[in-house]
Amino acid sequence: MKKIKQTIKYTKSSKSSKSSKSSKSSKSSKSMYTKKEAINDTPFILEKLELFLLFTLLLNYYLLLVSLNISRTETRNKIKEMVIELRHNNKLISSNTTDKELNNIISTIDNYFYNVVINLKKNIKKSITKKTRTSHTGGFYFRSLEDKGEQPITGADLSRLLDEVQQFFYNAKQTEEGKFLRGTDTILSMLRGDVNQFKGVLQYQIFPKYYSTRPLSINWNNIYDEIINQRKWEDIPDYLLAYQSYLRSRDEYLVEKGLKPPSVLQKDLYTGFYNKMANSLNDNIYAFQTYRRQFQGQYFPITTPI
């Protein structure tokens, strides 16, 4: 981070330069800032804040590209586009910065972020390996349950099975052939009370389809295409009811364990306006879909009686 700050040359006005110099000289002569000196330091503080926000934006963008399995070369090119635009706008990076200096900035950012990702992956893998080693001793998935025969299956048995399965999923889903396991692993984590993976899917895969980071704006074309053209608006009540069902099951569990009062099950989400709205939308859209199928001549096939 320190190296990046030293490498990036951000533009300062002559006024802010003078004010920062005067504030530095006053620091050496006085132990406390006066009100006037604090005001003079404001442009410098704002520039530091902008630099921090830029660093955070670039890092989040880099992590997003990595999570989408974008190659390092392509990721570097996308970061380069953002940095070039900053130079073009004379914002944080001076418009007088040469191409050689710009390439040094990009190389520094790319190498730093790449090392961040490597360290993150190592720490995550280490923590998961440590957790799985202490949580089970190897039940060979369903085999240990089958070997029990007529013996009862305990919660510890299920916990060991799920830990083993998710450890396998964690490694397998990183491969190209195992990408289909990502959704399954996310659902398993949610059903075990961990929503962090689900939040990551929303943050890095779902939400970015509907906004742009350069410049920061809402992507109305994608919203219209997915919601209107692909009829995702018809799925809205299913999203609402799935959200309600998950939270209600969680709250019922917490009430049973005495971690929440029973009154939590009477809140609006379960019995009030939200509940009525979601179910009403579900009934109306289902009726509309049935009418549309009939209008288009699509009918359910005749079932065989049993």
Radius of gyration: 28 Å
Overall residue-averaged pLDDT value:
75
User: Termini distance?
Assistant: 69 Å
Which parts are unreliable, with pLDDT below 50 for 5 consecutive residues or more? 9-39, 132-136
Helix amount, in percent? 55-70%
The total of beta strands comes to: 2
Could you say which structural class the secondary elements and strand pairing correspond to?
mainly alpha
What oligomerization state is this entry in? single chain
Largest sheet: 2 strands, antiparallel
Descriptive report:
The chain has 306 residues and is an all-alpha fold. Among the domains are: 2-121, no CATH class; 233-306. It has helices at 2-7, 14-29, 35-40, 42-67, 72-88, 99-135, 143-146, 155-172, 181-191, 196-206, 220-229, 236-256, 268-271, 273-295; strands at 211-213, 216-218. The termini are far apart.
Which helices and strands occur, and which strands form pairs?
Layout lengths: L1 H6 L6 H16 L5 H6 L1 H26 L4 H17 L10 H37 L7 H4 L8 H18 L8 H11 L4 H11 L4 E3 L2 E3 L1 H10 L6 H21 L11 H4 L1 H23 L11
Antiparallel strand pairs: 1-2
Helix pairs in contact: 4-5, 5-6, 6-8, 8-9, 9-10, 12-14
Please provide a brief summary of the model.
It is built from 14 helices and two strands; from the N terminus they run ααααααααααββαααα. The chain has 306 residues and is an all-alpha fold. Among the domains are: 120 residues, no CATH class; 74 residues.
